[in-house]
Write a structure and sequence with these properties.
2 copies of one chain form a homodimer.
Chain A: E1 15-19, H1 24-35, E2 39-44, H2 47-58, E3 69-73, H3 74-80, E4 83-86, H4 93-98, E5 108-111, E6 116-119, E7 122-125, H5 133-140, E8 145-148, H6 155-159, E9 168-172, H7 177-188, E10 193-197, H8 205-221, E11 226-230
Parallel strand pairs in A: 1-2, 1-4, 2-3, 4-5, 5-8, 9-10
Antiparallel strand pairs in A: 6-7
Amino acid sequence: MAYDASNLPDVSGLTVGIVGGTGDQGRGLAYRFARAGQAVLIGSRSAERAARSAAEIASSPGLPVGASIGGAANEEIARRSDVVVIAVPWDGHASIVGTLAEPLAGKIVVDCVNPLGFDKHGPYALAVEEGSAAQQAAALLPQSRVCAAFNHVSAPLLVDPQIDRIELDVLICTEERELVGIVGALAARIPGMRGIYAGRLRNAHQIEALTANLIAINKRYQAHAGIRVTDL
Amino acid sequence: MAYDASNLPDVSGLTVGIVGGTGDQGRGLAYRFARAGQAVLIGSRSAERAARSAAEIASSPGLPVGASIGGAANEEIARRSDVVVIAVPWDGHASIVGTLAEPLAGKIVVDCVNPLGFDKHGPYALAVEEGSAAQQAAALLPQSRVCAAFNHVSAPLLVDPQIDRIELDVLICTEERELVGIVGALAARIPGMRGIYAGRLRNAHQIEALTANLIAINKRYQAHAGIRVTDL
């Protein structure tokens, strides 16, 4: 029952699509997955912007020979990917995800969006009618296999080619045990990361909201904070 | 700005009171603080129960010679302590805390209560009108200095005298920078722990709610999970 990295499924053949792949978080995750040898497709509302972003990532240092990185409109990359990461800004989340129900049917969808507001006192968690961004995605994508994950990975660390290891745990909220294996295996392809089951989707809100705390930590300690689960 | 354990205030002379000190979490924290050499006062609605619990802790293995552990009614220990930990069950939180406004005036109050519900799918976060248990305490104790902390420490680890180190970070939510030092120094007296500033009280809800995720993690991985903040 303990966490066991030797027990993970082989996900090396899966194509990972990133909806909102031109944003900081999306580009960072795309770079790390490509660097790990995963085929990656960058999605954007603009196919042209997606292609440009894919070309930029393809020319980044540290990628393996033959790295496969493409870019296209969100709908097309959703259709062509096995696992699709939702990495759009929160204020576009419902509208963008809502248009992708058909191409995302049957796919594994990983929502890493954090609904946060900002004022003069810094970040705070926004209330979400469905409970969380991940639950909103699950409601909009009834034929997809939705989980929350990669909520706490720091974009500046992801995109920095000098950084080899990113020491943190990817907390995965899902109703499906099999997703923990697949998404956890994807997380584990990034050196330093583990994917840990962290409860059902109804407990995704506080995972997303915790990003407000991590931003406060980053500010106070001049850090790029992540979360590691102890005793695992 | 980085976390620096050498920079913490000297809190060795402070008396720590535990309101609800006869529960698992309260007894565990009382034992760890006493073991670290802190004077500890156990509080309960029943002075007799508090005294019995104090006597039990005083006879536990691992305490330093001359350990100071007393027990009395919640109101009395609130009055006699410098720092008071609120460790009552959530369903008694408002009523118990509400009666202590006067004895807790001017004191540092550390709320470690997690408002959780349980059903056949396990634990989930409860909505709290004030936002969080800590904010409810702050509203009920307008003359106290309230923070949220020690939400994630596992009672079975705390009470086990065989365990020397508990590897986790105590996330501290507060409006007052000085409290981070004092409460962080108390946390750091327990070997393996650090006290980390984790944002304002308005971001305490997700710290409390995250306990639902930790319980899910504990169940899946047969662990006593805690949180460590990386890159600090």
